[in-house]
Amino acid sequence: MNDLDTQEMTNEFLVNRDKEETELTLQFAKALLSIDLEIKDLKNDQKEIKNDAKANGVTVQKVTKALNILKASMKSNDAEKTELEMFEDVLANDVDIKTMISELVRKD
């Protein structure tokens, strides 16, 4: 095998590798875009459900907030919950903190 044959084989390998890499890249991009399109459709469905609920008198914003709080609570472990509860107790029992929070949330 001479240098010309080796160079030719190397070039062929690189061309084939580039084709495979390009195909894999395209497959990956298409898969991501497909999921993005599904997410977009789901978000539109979610928006329709919220609009229907709102039209029927449901306080969508409060329900959504409550669900988000529940999800966050379920994500945290017991040690985190205990620590947070301790901080909440300390802060809630401080007169200055309570006064400052009251001022912040007061609607003028």
What would a concise description of this structure say?
The chain is mainly α. 88% of the residues lie in helices and 0% in strands.
Overall geometric form? elongated
Low-confidence stretches: none
Helix content: over 70%
| Secondary structure: number of strands | 0
CA(first)-CA(last) distance: 89 Å
Structural class: mainly alpha
* Total of DSSP H or I helical runs spanning 4+ residues: 4
Based on CA atoms alone, the radius of gyration comes out at 29 Å
Strand content: under 5%
Keywords:
mainly alpha, 4 helices, 108 residues, 2 domains
Characterise the protein shown here.
- With 108 residues, this protein is mostly helical.
- It has 2 domains: 3-75; 77-108.
- The protein has 4 helices and no strands.
- The protein has helices at residues 3-55, 60-75, 78-92, 95-105.
- The termini are far apart.
Set down the secondary structure blueprint.
Elements: H1 3-55, H2 60-75, H3 78-92, H4 95-105
